[in-house]
Recover the amino acids of this structure.
């Protein structure tokens, strides 16, 4: 089965955890929950806009985790944040209390991963098309849960087509790890999700989801979009 992980910026709107249930009902396997950050380095325009909106509402990492603790999600939750938050004392305990089982820290150097205090939380590492072979092999060995394959050099955001570099990167990663390889950055449509699933174990869809939420789409409406992604992945699994 191909894995589907939609993304949501925590605290984006009041009652935002209703989207988690919509994702689950639509067939998502897990959800990436972004902790809003004022100075992101890999987030493109849409996710930055979402973070700004959440921060303007007074959202904090602590408030997002408090919301998750009461949400009782039925699928795994993967938090994404930046190193100066992830490396704070007690952050790992806060993740565990919130029911989070996975973590993505895009700006954390590979050499500093051991400094994360996250018992019981799997840290998934990122690989890009520019990652050299020796570094890629190390990422494959040290990643937990899955490897996050960045389909294109640049920031997150919707794009017109799946980058050719995604195919090459997924193939390289499959040679150095037995973990699932999930492709993200720029996967915006069911067609692109299907194309990505042809070479990887699943997809991460962020900006396309958040654009809909920012434009006022309800959990049910966004769930319809996520269901269309699920259908594309299921069709690809059947073909294969």
């Amino acid at each position: 089965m191909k894995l589907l992980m939609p993304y949501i910026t925590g605290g984006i709107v009041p009652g935002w955890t209703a989207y988690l249930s919509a994702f689950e009902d639509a067939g998502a396997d897990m959800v990436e929950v972004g902790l809003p950050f004022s100075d992101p380095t890999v987030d493109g325009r849409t996710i930055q806009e979402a973070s700004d909106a959440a921060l303007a509402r007074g959202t904090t990492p602590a408030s997002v985790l408090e919301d998750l603790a009461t949400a009782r999600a039925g699928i795994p939750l993967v938090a994404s944040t930046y190193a100066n938050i992830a490396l704070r004392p007690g952050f790992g305990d806060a993740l565990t209390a919130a029911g989070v089982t996975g973590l993505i820290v895009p700006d954390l150097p590979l050499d500093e991963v051991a400094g994360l205090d996250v018992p019981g939380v799997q840290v998934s590492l990122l690989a890009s098309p520019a990652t050299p072979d020796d570094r890629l092999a190390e990422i494959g060995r040290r990643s937990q849960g899955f490897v996050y394959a960045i389909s294109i050099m640049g920031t997150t955001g919707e794009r017109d087509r799946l980058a050719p570099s995604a195919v090459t990167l997924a193939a390289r990663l499959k040679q150095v790890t037995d973990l699932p390889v999930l492709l993200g950055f720029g996967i915006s449509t069911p067609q692109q999700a299907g194309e990505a699933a042809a070479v990887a174990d699943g997809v991460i869809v962020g900006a396309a989801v958040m654009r809909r939420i920012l434009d006022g789409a309800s959990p049910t409406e966004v769930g319809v979009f996520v269901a269309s992604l699920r259908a594309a992945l299921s069709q690809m699994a059947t073909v294969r």
